[in-house]
Amino acid sequence: MNSYPGRLGVVQRVLPVYRAPFFDTLAQACAGGMALFAGQPRADESIATAGRLERGRLVDAANIHLFTTASPLYFCYQRGIRSWLQTWNPNALIVEANFRYLSSPAAIGWMHQRGRAVIGWGLGAPLERGPLSMLRRRFLGQFDAMIAYSQRGADQYARCGIAEEKIFVAPNAVTPAPRQPVPVRPAGFDGQPSLLFVGRLQARKRIPALLQACASLPNQLRPKLVIVGDGPEMQALQALAGSLYPAAQFVGARHGAELAPFFTGADLFVLPGTGGLAVQEAMSYGLPVMVAQGDGTQADLVRVGNGWQIPPGDDAALSAALVEALADAARLRVMGAESYRIVAQEINLEKMVAVFVEALGRVSRVEA
Predict the structure, then answer these.
(1) Which alpha helices (DSSP H) does 170-220 contain, by range?
(2) What whole-number distance in Å separates Cα of residue 69 and Cα of residue 71?
(3) Is 181 exposed, middle or buried (0-12, 13-18, 19+ CB in 10 A)?
(4) CA distance linking residue 205 with residue 62, whole number of Å
(5) Could you give all domains of the chain from N- to C-terminal order, each with its CATH number?
(6) How far apart are CA 149 and CA 124, in angstroms?
(7) Are 219 and 240 within 8 A, CB to CB?
């Protein structure tokens, strides 16, 4: 992997636990070091944040939240950002490309006054009309380059007027390339097929829809459904499964190496709702995946060759996809091998960091 010779600064509203490995890998690729300026979420957001980085420096920001994050009027101001910039004095800066973060323009201005580059990073910019659309366009126009999570996001930035040569695509990754080989699975199902869900048990995961879809399957296709996770919906979901699909097994929360037997023993990984941090880990165990369509990152990760993307909230489509998947074990094995190839060769932390380093090299010249 190439490296960036300078000192890098990164601004995040918050640092979720799942994002820390990426920033540690990025810090390792910065010869001059990396410091990350991040604050805390609102109490009602239920975001687990990292308290430290292994290789980078984590600096606490004083986040001031205006309105709730669900409100179209939400904004956030990060107090202390100028002092941090003066202390760290980065050669380049990476900022979340969100105009609702009110301290970012001051940080961008500070860097540009010193002739230093600022890169934006984000999901994309859906087309909107009205005053907020104008604010977004004006904000995005300040960046020297833009890194998108997905090709769809890159296309949206281009439609906002950002030159295509300034846009980079770093497919969203939360895990390194797999180090273990693909598990060897039998050509057919070992008795009944096994479905796996891993995630927090909350309403937006739509586990009731998964239970209903399994219950609607023909008897010969009904799978063993293993649900890994904990959360506010646990008791309600167990009660629902008892009456709707007793074959469902709730095993509670598992982390790290504890998850390996569940991934290895499954035939298909299913996430019927939003979120999906475990998708890439499932793919690293050679599993085909079935996910709800979301912010565009799934389009790069889940393809016809390795899984299914279900329209959000479409229970009939979920049931139909399960029938198609569970009717052909041999096809699932081929799709699982493709999942493994994608995360081994295309979408992983190392590839994501490489794009960031490439973008930094294009826009930030550091004198020896």
Answers:
(1) 207-215
(2) 5
(3) exposed
(4) 31
(5) 8-173+348-363 (3.40.50.2000), 194-345 (3.40.50.2000)
(6) 8
(7) no
End-to-end Cα spacing for the chain: 20
Classified as helix, coil or strand, 245 is: coil
- 49-80 burial, b at 16+ Cβ within 10 Å, e below that, comes to bbeebeebebbebebebeeeeeeeeeebbbee
The total of other beta-carbon atoms located within 10 Å of residue 136's CB is 19
Q: How many residues does the chain have?
A: 368
CA distance 138 to 97: 11
Instruction: Tell me the DSSP string of 286-344.
Output: T--EEEE--SSHHHHHS-TTTEEEEPTT-HHHHHHHHHHHHT-HHHHHHHHHHHHHHHH
| 251 vs 260: CA distance, rounded Å | 14
How far from the centroid of its chain's Cα atoms is residue 152's Cα? Answer: 14
Amino acid identity, residue 313? Answer: G
Q: Yes or no: say if 91 and 364 are a contact pair by the CB < 8 Å rule.
A: yes
DSSP 248-265: EEEEE---GGGGHHHHHH
What is the β-pairing status of strands 62-66 and 75-79? antiparallel
195: its two tokens: 């479905």
Written as tens digits, the pLDDT of the chain (368 aa) is 689 999 999 999 999 999 999 999 999 999 999 999 999 999 888 788 999 999 999 999 999 999 988 888 899 999 999 999 999 999 999 999 999 999 999 999 999 999 999 999 999 987 666 677 788 889 999 999 999 999 999 999 999 999 999 999 999 999 999 999 999 999 999 889 999 999 989 898 999 999 999 999 999 999 999 999 998 899 999 999 999 999 999 999 998 899 999 999 999 999 998 877 899 999 999 999 999 987 666 778 999 999 999 998 899 999 999 999 999 999 999 999 999 999 999 999 999 999 999 999 999 988 75
Separation of alpha carbons 280 and 262, rounded Å: 14
